[in-house]
Design brief:
The structure is a single chain. Helices cover about 80% and strands about 5% of the residues. It contains 2 helices and 3 strands. It has a 3-stranded antiparallel β-sheet, with no helix packed on it. The termini are far apart.
Length: about 160
């Protein structure tokens, strides 16, 4: 009955001047113009419209829930992808830091290697000098022993001749 109470002049339209009054057309919401039947069938029609309205509301609510669930799923997927991207970004940064550290250590090792090569060359020169010096010393000792032995031999020969 609420439908009839809210009935306005613009909701009722005569199709033609020769129209029978029972064929009054009524417009309800977005629905096209429908014939307004006798009161007892109109009440049934109103309940049908009310049922349709409830069904539409249920469908809209279900559609909203589906949309919300889809949006939440999409948001979760995006969040997971972001977490994975952040993880790989951190891993990349850690690798970059390690690479820089290793490059620094490599440079230090190369400098140390150069320093050690120079030290080895210096020690080899020193060893060569010491060996040369030792050879000369041994040669001098050997000469002095030879000269001493020659002198003793001469002394012994002189003693034998006397």
């Amino acid at each position: 009955m609420a439908i009839f109470q809210s009935l306005k002049d613009e909701d009722v339209k005569w199709r033609a001047l020769s129209m029978i009054p029972d064929e009054i057309l009524y417009r309800c919401g977005d629905l096209d113009w429908v014939p307004l039947l006798r009161i007892w069938t109109a009440v049934g029609y109103a309940s049908l419209l009310l049922g349709l309205d409830i069904d539409v509301q249920k469908l809209e609510a279900a559609k909203m829930r589906k949309g919300k669930n889809k949006a939440e799923e999409d948001l979760n997927k995006i969040q997971e992808e972001k977490n994975r991207a952040d993880h790989w970004e951190r891993k990349f940064q850690d690798t970059r830091v390690r690479e820089d550290t290793i490059k620094g250590e490599l440079l230090e090792c190369q400098v140390e290697k150069t320093r050690l090569k120079a030290r080895v060359a210096e020690l080899e020169r020193s060893l060569h000098q010491h060996r040369s010096h030792n050879s000369m010393t041994e040669l001098k000792v050997s000469r002095s022993k030879n000269e001493e032995l020659k002198r003793k031999v001469e002394e012994l020969e002189a003693a034998l001749q006397n």
